[in-house]
Design goal:
methyltransferase; 8-stranded mixed sheet; binds S-adenosylmethionine; transferase; sequence-specific DNA binding; Rossmann fold
């Protein structure tokens, strides 16, 4: 199934290739840089396999939590928010930027209330404040959802000027809510998340901000974070796959691991330059053909006839280059 949102760097076009190189077996699936969750939504959840969606952008994870757990309330807020216009877009952005109702704000308010009120009064007030904070999470999620829908390229920064009636997307939200029933939603930096979930049977799919396009996201991702990610993955007990833009820096960084070159149409560039291709790489710490090799011969033959055997996998040398070049 599809995600309920578009997201910069979303893997809608690449995910079919990505699944083909998933490991044969794993007991927990962890999507480290979740974004719109395109890869997660497109995979069939397996009974007994734990599934985790993570992103460091708290507006995004709040949206996923509200879609998953508070669907009715979320839809109610969406219905109430005014219709699409440039002014509304500005109001929504201000609301999101101010982050009026963060957890930090809530604990400060609770502390003040406790200090100034008698214990019974504080108990009453506490309940009210917690209730309000919950509501604001849904309000924040609804505002963020509209911001994504109304903005150019789903970048949340400039108004797209395209008519959009969010009510027409309600069915997508219901579908997503059902799909996420057993998914754990986390809001952590990748390093903490990977260390927390790493086991022998874990499989991490990592789709970090691409090299030299880091500024497209609200969460700051530094050049040193690419190295930090590689180092974190290097010491992993489980299996992992990373997708990146194809460039010398990334090939060198991941030299010694399996690297596959893939090309797909670039959505944004395509609007202006029909058919513009974008070279990417998929990197793994396990033999990417293990799934295919375990398939019955007939299936292999079928895949071969469909041209699947044209994939170019190789283990890169210490300079990230193909050994035969
Ligand atoms: C390329 S996008 C992921 C797109 C996603 N695969 C999809 O199909 O929609 C990268 C994501 O990484 C998130 N991110 C940035 N820094 C992060 C960090 N330190 N830890 C976890 N997530 C981070 C961004 O918020 C962004 O949503």
């Amino acid at each position: 199934m599809n995600s309920f949102i578009s997201w910069i760097g979303g893997k809608k076009a690449l995910r079919k290739i990505i699944y083909r190189f998933f490991p044969k077996d794993y007991g927990r699936y962890i999507e480290v840089f979740g974004g719109g969750g395109w890869v997660l939504f497109g995979r069939k959840p397996k009974r007994g396999t734990m599934e985790v969606y993570n992103d460091f952008n708290s507006n995004l994870t709040n949206l996923f939590c509200c879609v998953k757990n508070r669907t009715w309330e979320f839809l109610r807020y969406l219905g109430f928010l005014p219709l699409n216009s440039r002014d509304e877009f500005r109001v929504l952005r201000k609301f999101i930027e101010k982050e009026e109702f963060t957890q930090e704000y809530l604990s400060e308010e609770l502390e003040l209330a406790q200090h100034n009120l008698s214990p019974p009064e504080f108990e009453d007030m506490r309940e009210l404040m917690l209730e309000n904070a919950k509501k604001s999470d849904v309000r924040r999620a609804a505002a963020f959802y509209k911001l994504i829908r109304y903005s150019y390229g789903s970048g949340c920064t400039s108004y797209s000027c395209q008519p959009c009636d969010v009510r027409k997307t309600f069915f997508l939200i219901w579908e997503a809510s059902r799909r996420l029933t057993d998914t754990v939603v986390e809001n952590k930096d990748f390093e903490a998340l990977i260390r927390q979930y790493d086991r022998d049977n874990a499989f991490f799919y990592c789709d970090p901000p691409y090299y030299e396009t880091e500024g497209h996201y609200a969460v700051v991702f530094r050049k040193s974070d690419h190295v930090r990610l590689r180092d974190t993955l290097k010491s992993c007990r489980g299996k992992w796959m990373v997708s990146y833009n194809d460039c010398e820096y990334i090939r060198n960084l991941y030299a010694g691991f399996y690297i596959l070159s893939v090309t797909r149409l670039n959505n944004l560039a395509q609007r202006y330059d029909g058919g513009c291709e974008y070279p990417e790489v998929i990197i793994t710490n396990y033999d990417p053909k293990e799934r295919r090799n375990s398939e019955p011969m007939q299936l292999n033959l079928f895949n071969y006839e469909n041209g699947d055997d044209e994939d170019e996998w190789y283990r890169a040398d210490e300079m990230g280059q193909r050994p035969d070049l």
